[in-house]
Specification:
The protein has 88 residues and is of the alpha/beta class. The protein contains 3 helices and 3 strands; from the N terminus they run αβαββα.
Length: 88
């Protein structure tokens, strides 16, 4: 958590959903995580939002699919997608 606290990171990559749930109490009030990516397994359906900790949750395969779709968009239109990110 030390590295995350002093970086501008907004994404957290974890091995599985169970590990994420174990980390939630340590992240609350400290980390400004907006996106969590789960490398193995599926996310629960429906997603259980932890009290006070609301993030967008993606599986690894969802991230890969979104990247492929983005590449197709650029290839077909020549326009880069707007990511909605800002640098502080």
């Amino acid at each position: 958590m030390f590295y995350h606290s002093f970086s501008c990171s907004v994404a957290l990559v974890v091995e599985n959903y169970d590990l994420f749930i174990k980390l939630v109490p340590h992240l609350q009030g400290v980390a400004k995580v907006k996106i969590v990516i789960i490398l193995w397994g599926d996310k629960p359906s429906p997603i259980q939002r932890s009290e006070g900790f609301d993030v967008d949750l993606y599986t690894y395969s969802e991230v890969i699919t979104k990247g492929q779709e983005s590449r197709k968009l650029v290839a077909n239109t020549g326009n880069l997608p707007v990511l909605g990110c800002t640098m502080l």
